[in-house]
């Protein structure tokens, strides 16, 4: 048992993550070809506009469901809405935000862009803390759009083109179908003024997505309404990111590797549950922490992966000496 | 007939320092239970450098550092050697007294004293003064006025804020650029990565040895550990690593064989406060002569110097420099910072982790920041039920009678407490 634990704690989490991400990418983008479909309540951006999707992002059905006239929405007919929601929750509750770090195709693509940038020897950019604090609110505005725009349609306040307003501007709609050779989403919808604005925003955001995530690690996750939605339910999840403040020296190693620039991970020594709304649960912080047990990933209060001095030294290649240069 | 030669003042000084060093070395070697054989390397090293004034780095550019905040990773990557200037000699302390107020910290006085006498086995080419405490910052200017080249590396005094992180990162970037110009060496990505990993490896070895001290039968006394870490101030890093590896192997065997460096009832002590620096190991030596054992410490001449490690996400020069900067600021528990919550947390964690029976807090008389933090640390320890002894000391050899009595009494009380608990 001790050996298994030691093996996990010393694991090369980057490689593990790379392959798992690739697996999920293939599953979600090409699942249709293998007759796999995990349903339409998946807590990641695997876009429903992709015809071969192996499991659909929950936001498209959610928006359709919420756009029903109010009397229908609050009737027995909405039992299906509830079932969809419960399914989403069940998926989410097991893995928590690890969906973002390990399964989301849009997240994976961003990591690939990061990899490309790294290969080209270009350094990433960061936000300053005040910028960060302001920008992080955007994802809640996006979530509000996901929820209230279709309700507005159902109530008859907004036009029908608002039904899936978020999907219109989501880069996932344009990018994921590309991988099965479908370029039909790359067009502007001139049917109404609103549709035109929304689809142009979609194009702009797609451009931003590509450029942004090339220069900034996980650029889009910062604005992702799915991330906001996850956070609302994350307390109920089985997988947890925990911190033991007594053991933390605030050295900032975890903050340094954090793609999402979460300051609390290093500076907060009071919280035991250290999962923040921006977190993508990639576990890089745990892998980069040089203090035994200061950060750990728990499932049902059992330590699954924990920070260790030995694991740190191994991953940083500090457990051996390659070359002498004195 | 042999020619009679009158000793020059510099020679006399060297003789005094050598006498001071060898007296302490003799004590360390012979007054305690037999040390691990691998300690021989370190005893010999101190003798070579401090008694025989042997130079270790004649072929390299030497960068003197006034505090642990100056990143060694960068200095090594620029093909130079960092030499820590924090000094522990009473002889130098006395000389420095003429240049600083009489109530200044002996460590700072001794450091300045060494520059006054211009007496180095390896003389630094440039001196880096991170503007940490007031006395260090001001003494940088005093040393500069003596004709040495001093570089002020600006260090923030608050570490929680985003601004301080950015400020220090900028300081480190500027330092890197300026030092590289000064030494006329270009910093390469490869070299920086290598030096981060090499120091990381040295730290890794230190941690592994430290963990062995958690055993009920700890294989090594604190006085030896202080010698090992102090040697990192000036030794060739590769030789230090080799010696450390041997020591580690031997200590691992000792743990296996359940060899105890102390005795069964020896109280376990966590040491904190002003740094013991060779040859001023007065308090650690007294503690362990009184049959206690130092199992962990929170001082900048040992644990604090090695504890936090650099972690890098993308191995680009600027990334590495930022990561290095963070390691020297964020994890630091120096009392110069506005708050001392981190230091209290650290001491408590060490007490728990190393199953210590008590804490000894040394403050050099005149080291205001340690003196000022004393009360809050005492309070925190009392709250946690950890016995603590506060000692004010200096470099003079005259005090030891009174100190011995106090330490003996403290150790006795810890022993009684231990007996009662059993």
Automatic annotation (TrEMBL), chain A:
Highest taxon of source: Bacteria
UniProt source species: Sulfurimonas denitrificans (strain ATCC 33889 / DSM 1251) (Thiomicrospira denitrificans (strain ATCC 33889 / DSM 1251))
Transmembrane segments: 16-36, 72-94, 140-158, 195-215
Extent of the signal sequence: none
4Fe-4S ferredoxin-type domain sequence ranges: 239-268, 270-300
PANTHER family xrefs: FERREDOXIN-TYPE PROTEIN NAPH
Protein name: 4Fe-4S ferredoxin, iron-sulfur binding
Pfam family, one: Fer4_10
Gene Ontology CC annotations of this record: plasma membrane
Keywords: 4Fe-4S, Electron transport, Iron, Iron-sulfur, Membrane, Metal-binding, Transmembrane, Transmembrane helix, Transport
GO molecular function, one term: 4 iron, 4 sulfur cluster binding
InterPro entries per the UniProt record, alphabetical: 4Fe4S_Fe-S-bd, 4Fe4S_Fe_S_CS, Electron_Trans/Redox
UniProtKB/TrEMBL annotation, chain B:
Organism superkingdom: Bacteria
Record keyword Coiled coil present: yes
GTP-binding listed as a keyword: no
Keywords: Coiled coil
Any Pfam family: HGD-D
Coiled-coil features, chain-numbered ranges: 237-264
Family statement: Belongs to the FldB/FldC dehydratase alpha/beta subunit family.
PANTHER family the record matches: 2-HYDROXYGLUTARYL-COA DEHYDRATASE, D-COMPONENT-RELATED, DEHYDRATASE SUBUNIT MJ0007-RELATED
Name of the protein in its database record: 2-hydroxyglutaryl-CoA dehydratase, D-component
Organism annotation: Sulfurimonas denitrificans (strain ATCC 33889 / DSM 1251)
